[in-house]
């Protein structure tokens, strides 16, 4: 059994704060703070450029990738780190599209994160492809013989709705298409098995449930059957088979290494590496069971105490990730009032109060306090103050 009391103690959780926004930014692992300091002091400070070899900076993207691979159902040597999630989406999507040159259609859904859709729109213009966007419930029916790539975020960022990865991948393959899965709201929150689902490509960020810190680098996975065949449009020197030969022409590195682009963010990767320590000994089945316990308790509590709120997430836990949304006409102001009371969730337009439950550090006491404060604010109307209606730059 996973000791979630021990994993909770591994984080710095500010006193008086109930943190339910790990699906936007995870809190700081205590080990990350110390690792960042030692990396800057002992490696960058003392080793200077020799750290690329002496401290293993060059190998970091693969080494940290292997630690993430265990959490997403991938094998050793199949995941590499670096760059932002949007860049990794572009790499994976362009590579998948190129593997189906006789097809033009990229299919996604309206619940996909907008940045993924923006990337797909730009790529479609560049390579004469067509992006089709349908409602999440219409994806299966939209998969046909014209499809090149099915690109979906496994857990919807706004509703928490979870796609059936295995079933949709099987359907896409039967139609001759490939799949690309964005795991931004899945990795570290739910049980994942990319290999078992027979997916083709996957990407994800590490600053949410993996707690790598603001701007932490993204990861990319390619199924081994494609790893030596893919040719991403975005090619960089770290993805060259001999980067320090400084050849004028690009020659792809073997396997997932070709999905590297530029110089890796060494300090950020050191922080993420330390953040991954807390995952040692965490069983995926335990993680999922605790996630369901927390989200079920929250839904039951809110619906009993806040009858004016409308559930914006699937009621069936099998179709839900590790976040819950409720709708309120003035959701932004209500969330700002909650934050002022030390209950930190977030808001998604147009009217969604969004709460992320991270099994590593959230518990039933967090659920109870959040329900209690939310009910009080709605009951006494104290959320309806001018200062809570003022939009901040980041909502």
Main pleated-sheet profile? 7 strands, mixed
CATH architectural designation of the largest domain: 3-Layer(aba) Sandwich
Compute the number of structural domains: 2
CATH-defined topology of the largest domain: Aspartate Aminotransferase, domain 2
GO molecular function: kynureninase activity
Pfam families: KYNU_C
Binding site for pyridoxal 5'-phosphate: 85-86, 113-116, 153, 182, 185, 207, 237, 263
Pathway: Amino-acid degradation; L-kynurenine degradation; L-alanine and anthranilate from L-kynurenine: step 1/1; Cofactor biosynthesis; NAD(+) biosynthesis; quinolinate from L-kynurenine: step 2/3
For the structure shown, list the relevant keywords.
globular, seven-stranded mixed β-sheet, 15 helices, pyridoxal phosphate, Aspartate Aminotransferase, domain 1, alpha/beta, Kynureninase, 395 residues, Aspartate Aminotransferase, domain 2, EC 3.7.1.3, PyrdxlP-dep_Trfase_major, 2 domains
What does this entry show, briefly?
The protein has helices at residues 4-9, 30-47, 51-54, 60-72, 85-98, 114-127, 139-142, 165-174, 194-197, 224-227, 266-275, 284-305, 331-340, 364-380, 386-389; strands spanning 11-12, 18-19, 28-29, 79-81, 105-109, 130-134, 147-153, 178-182, 201-204, 219-222, 310-311, 323-327, 343-344, 346-348, 352-356. The chain has 395 residues and is of the alpha/beta class. It is 39% helix and 14% strand.
